[in-house]
Structures are given as C-alpha cells and as structure tokens.
Design goal:
Shape of chain B: globular
Chains: A mainly alpha (about 290), B mainly alpha (about 350), C alpha/beta (about 250)
Strand order of the largest sheet of chain B: 1-2
Oligomer: heterotrimer
Radius of gyration of chain B: 21 Å
Helix content of chain B: over 70%
Structural class of chain B: mainly alpha
Largest sheet of chain A: 2 strands, antiparallel
Helix content of chain A: over 70%
Largest interface: A-B, 50 and 45 residues
Structural class of chain A: mainly alpha
Distance between the termini of chain A: 50 Å
Strand content of chain B: under 5%
Distance between the termini of chain B: 44 Å
Number of domains of chain B: 1
Largest sheet of chain B: 2 strands, antiparallel
Amino acid sequence: MDILTQQLFNGLTIGSVYSLVALGLTLVYGILHIPNFAHGALYMLGAYVTLTSMLLWNFNYWLAIAISIVVVGLLGVLMERLVFNPLKNSPPIHDKIAAIGILLFLEALAQLVWGADYRTMSTPYGEVVNVFGTTLTMQRVLINVGAVIVMILLYFFLKKTFMGSTIIAMAQNRKGAHLVGINTNKVAMLTFLISGGLAAIAASLSAPINLVFPGMGHLVILKAFVIIILGGMGSVPGAILGGYILGFTESLGATYISNDYKDVIAFILLIIILSFKPKGLFSKEGF
Amino acid sequence: MPAMTKKSIALIVLIIGAMVIPFIIQNEYWLHILTLSFIWSIAVYGLNILAGYTGYLSLAHAGFFAIGAYALGLLTVKAGLNYWVALILACIITSGIGLLIGLVALRTREHFFAIYTLCVGYVIYLVIDKWDSLTGGVRGLIGIPAPSNIGPISFQSAISQYYLILFFLLATVVVMYRIVHSLTGRTFIAIRNSEELAQTIGISTMKNKLTVFVLSTFFAGLAGALYASFIRFIGPDIGYTTIIFDLLTYLLVGGIGTLAGPVVGTILIVSVSQSLQFLQDYRMLIFGPMLTLIIIFYPRGIVGMVSEWKMKWFNKKKKAPAETWKSTYSDSEDVREDKVKEG
Amino acid sequence: MFIEAKNLTKQFGGLTAVKDVNFEIEKGKINAIIGPNGAGKSTFFNLVSGSYIPTSGQVIYKGKDITKLPPNKIAELGVARTFQTTNLFEQATVLDNVIVGHRLRTKSNLLDAVLRTKRYKKEEKKCKDKAMEVLDFVGLTNITDQLAGSITQEEKKRVAFALALATDPEVVFLDEPAAGINSGETEGLAELMKKMVKRGITVCLIEHKMQMIMKLADKIMVLNYGEKIAEGSSEEIMNNQDVIEAYLGGDASA
C-alpha cells in the first residue's frame, strides 16, 4: 500500500513535467502545424540556463528560473522568425528537417559550452517532508504545485485575455484569424515565446530531481510527442491529461512490470494507438 | 540527343575514376573512409527513394540499418552461416520486418508518420541494447567475418573490399535509376506531389507506399550488413537516432529527391568530417545549421543547385522566358483565394 | 441510368454539409452543380466522385454501388476528376506529368522496372503514347517538353484535364475549372468541354462563373445550405424563384 502511494505520487510528479513540456509542443502544433523536434533542446537549455545562473552568478533559484524562461522563450521566438516563418509555404517534410537541424545544433552547442558531463542542480528545497505517512522531498511537492499554478495561469491567459484568445482563434482557423485582422505573425511569435517558457519551467523544476546533460531532452520530447498524439495534436486539455496518464503508467509500470523497459511503455502505447487510430486519438474528420 | 551522350560519357568517366582510385590514393586510411561512405550512400539511397521520391520521412531508417547489421552479425557469428547466405538472409529479414512495420506505419501520414517511425526506431535501438542474451547488449557483437571467398576471389584486403562495396553501390544506383525513370517511379512521385490526386488517377497509394517502404528498408539492411562485415564489430549505437540524423544530413546536403544526391552528399560530408577530426563531437554545430539553411534556401541540395544553375544558363542561352517561376509548393490556400476573387 | 446519387447526406461533426440530395448525372451531357458559397457544392462533388464517404445515401455508377469504393478503384471504373488547385510536379516536363495518368491501365511492377522487361517497355510506350494523345486533345502539343513550373495558369488547367483524360474515363468531374483564368481563356476551356462530350465523355462540373454555366450546361442542379433547391435546364434555373432568392439573399458575388 505504501509503495503504491509512493508510486502514485511519483507518477503525478513525472506527469506534471510531461504535461508542461507537452503543452508547449501542442500549442506550437495547434497554431503552426509544426512538429517541433527542437522542443527537447529548448527543455535542455532551460535547465542549463537555470543551473548556470545559480552557479555562476549565485542567483536565487526563482530568479534563475525567471531568467531561464525569458532566455529560452526568446530563443523560441528567434527560431520562429529565422526558420519556421521562412518555411511557411514549404511542404511539411521541410519543417521537420529544419527542426531536427536546430535540435542537433543546440545539443552540440550545449556540449561545447557546458561539456558532456552529467551535472546535478541543488536547490534550497531538498528537505524531506512527511505527508500522510509517505516521505517526499520538498522539490517534488514544488514540481506538482508549480505545474498546477502554471497550468491555471495558462488557462486564464488563453481564455480570459485578448492575446490569449487570438492564439485560440488562430489554432482553430488560421485563415479566418487573418481575415478578422489578427496579426498571425505576432501570434506565432507569442506562441513560441510561451512554448519556450513552458519548456524552461518544466526543466528548471525537474532538474533537481534528475540530472542535467546535453541529451536530457531526447526522451522527454519523444514522450511529449506521444502525449500530444494521445491527447489530440493541438489540444491543451489533452496535453495535460495525456501527460498525467503517461506519468502514472510509467511509474506504475516501472514498479510492477520492469524498470528496464519503463521508457518503452510510452512508445509501445503510441505504436498501439497509431496502429488503430492513424490520426491520433481525438482526430476530427477533416474538411 | 547530344546531352544524353554527354551525360553517359561523364558517367563512364566517373565509374572509371572510382575504379582507379585505389591506385591513385595509396593511403589505406582514405580508402577505408571512401569505402565507408559508399556503404552509407547505399543506406541513404534507401532513405531517398522513400523520403525524396515518395514524400514519407522515415526516422526508423537507422533502426533498419542496425537490423541488417545485427542479422548478418548473428547469422555468421552465432549461427555460423556462410557469409553470402547470411547477407541475403539479412536483407530478407530486414525487408520482412520492414513489411510488417510498414503495414501499420503507412496508415499514418506526414507528422504522424515521422513521429511513429521515430518511436519505432527508438524501440529497435532499445531492443538491441537490452536484449543482452541475443545481441550482446552494450558490449556489442565482435568477430564478424569479412566476406568469404567467391571461387578464387578473396575479400580480405582493403582494396578488394573497396571493389566489392563499389559494386554494391553501383548496383544500387542502377536499380534506383531504373526505378525513378519508370512508371513505378512516376507513381511514387505522383504520391509525393499529392496523395489525393494520385488516388483519383487510379493509383493504389497504400500498395505503392508499402512497396517503396520495403524497398527502402531493403537497402538499409543491405548497407547495415555490409557495414557489419566491413567494420567487423557492431554495437547498439548504430541504431541510435543520431545515425538517422547523420543520414538525413548526407541526403539533404547532396540533394533529396535527386539521383546523384545521396552519393555526393555522403562522400562530401563523411570526408569533410574526417578531415576535421577535432570536430567529431561538435560536428553538429556545423551540420545542424547546415541542415536548416539548406532546407530553407536549397531544398534540393547541391545536386538541385547545380541543375538549377544549368537550367538558368540554358534558358539565358535560348533567351529567357518571361514567365516567372512559381514555387512548387506555393500556398494553395492563397492561390485559391486569388482565383475566387477573379471569378 | 448513368450515375445516380441517392439521398446523399454528409455530416462533419455536428454540421450537415449535404442533406438528402438526389441527383442524376446524364450520360453524354454537361452536368453542372452551382450554388452560393458554402452551399455544399464541393462536398457533394467529393461524395459523388468518391473522395468522401457519405454519412448516408448511395452513389450508383452504371448500376454498380460505388459508395464505399476507394478513389483509385472508382478511377479504374472510368471516373476521373480534377482539383481546383492543380498539383503538378513543377520540376518535370508537361509530358512527364501526364504519363502517370495512364498508369492505372498498366500492370508492370517494380521488378519489371528494375529488369527492364518486355512488358515494361511495351507499357512505358503505351503510357507515353496515351499522354501525347491526350495532350494533343487538349491542344498542348507545342509545350510537351516545357517544365510544368513554367507554363501559364490556363495551360496548367489543360494539363490537369489531360491527366484526367489519360485515365481513359467515361465521366470527368471538374472542380471549378475556370477559376483563376480570364474570360477569353474560359471560352477556350468551355470549347474543350464540349469537345470532350463529343468524344463520348460525360462532364460534370461545379463552377462559380454563372455566365459560362448558363451557356454551357445541359443540366444544372442548384444547392443551397446543403439541400437541392432546383434542377433543370439553364432556362428553368434562371426563372426559378428559389434560385433567384438564394443568390440575391446570399452571396451576391457568387
């Protein structure tokens, strides 16, 4: 019983991180129909920027995260401007290859700047607390609370503000949005900014319980793709729900099936889903 | 047709050039590099016929390369089969697995296909890495034999291996040339242009896509098997996603959807990165942006660039036509809007 | 009866794009479907030509139910179509673009191509001859060697016609063939359609250009909000009160 609650909490924590990464991915997909393979590199850079600000300039954890959000968000915008915008009218295969190019570049860059070593990030929240008979570290609690707060903020932004509603409008109908006077370029940049910011938050929150290294984004991004296919490409609630589903499945699978193969669960899940629903779980019949 | 004969003369010169190279560069190291890039070229041709001519970007290609390599390795080392039998079996096994995966994967399209195959590739890598009892896991597989003798011909020396691989490469190019310039090839290209249109002119897209997918895995398997017997040692790394990114770089630089692209891109990039050995770990610092820039500015790589120059030069000679060039893939939505306005 | 649409209905999610439409396409005639923007013309067209599967209803072609057949099988039976946007392979010549149109009447496979068998050579020639024949039919023999990317909008339309004709069809569906070209060129395309009918090929088209339709079509169906509101000859349609209201009340530019 004790193990089960522990694992459920673990699943919740992993799920929070997945959801945040998948949210950024799904927003970009919803609006620009780009499967941004470089999103994992943004996640990785988010962790490095936070780590560097803390180690090099002795910034406080929260300030470091804020810097990371800005830096990675702006990098996202830069990507949109320099790469995806010029490719707007190209066949979809080009976007994918360009995104892969960016991914390779950013990873090599991280390796050059920070080296290939695995690093740890220590935070002021290492202490252990006892909740309902299970022991957990503060950092894990922080991840969950942080993720929920970010999701709520994102929800209000998308639903209650004008800028947010332009994103929704454009996701639903790019051409229509253009016709009613929405500046589609601005919205695209804004979306990449948010997407990058979310990746930075996810990485900075989870880095203390994981390790920081140039390839840390690989698995996360692959799983995020699984999640948004699970939850419907472009769907915000789908990304959140899918993230938690995968988180729980993995942590329970690791305990009760095999720790070696826990990473395969996501891919097997995806292969099964796409085998039966080639357009994802919640595909609508297109016009 | 003087252009045709000019082309075939150039081709013959190139082949003779490739034949005499071992006598010109007496350096074994460079011969090794060249042979290796021939092997990669074969794999890239497999990727090209699928991604370049049919429009389906398979990110599981490195996985199939690894399957071919491991099939050959296991069949020779563990099962003790004759090399040539093992080579044929390795190709059949890879294509067979390709057929099974293709049946499911090809139900998906575009982004879903890319993500699906990326996951398939990753699963192949993980299986090789974790199935210790069969594959040797991270320790890899050692002692893979070189090709066994055919009658009096032995393949022990570097030069004889070079010729053997050159033979396979030339065979691959001939097969590709014949496919691309045939009704079958036209069918693939029609699918790439518009699957919807292809279907309405009576093409069974699924059947053709499956054919080309299996074909592409066949060449990945062949290249993998040749690699295994050339390097004599294989590890799970050869199935990792970085390999598919390497292959993509070779293809993009040379020219995706062109016949010469795979061999041009592979030889160029492999030899450049060998000359810049110090770059080995950081080669993606250059290749990454190169991939992105090429796809934005020269979507058909070096070969496409050259043929564009040639065409411009040719057009200038016979007085340029006034008609402006419209991009192949112009935004259909916008075009439609213009038409409605005019209507 | 040649082609018959029976009670065709198509829903997308909760939206009904086409509602219970009956229509008969008459052999050897020019049949047209018109209607204001968003009337469901394109959807109906896609249903009859086999690109969509209807939510309910049937499409009968020469007595055979083709409702659920995939588009490539329908093409084999002799139904061809064009699209509004002409997707040509612009780096290849006009001839190269059209050759593949006859592919469905050939059998050679990958192995034939690699081994260059007799069958391959025979069929390769057959397709090329067919392509030349249809290019001649649409009046493009002078540009067969030009790249598809360098020809005019009107020529592209004709290439698309040629591609459809290369499949040896009995009926050709044309999706707004005159969109994006000027009135002189429209005349030319209208002539071409008449020529097709003379050859025994039935034509069915949707079109925005009313003038052209009224002059050209033998039989017209008018759709509005997914439902059939009128059917008949151009005179009958022009004097139909419902049609006039639909057009005046709706999108006047259509």
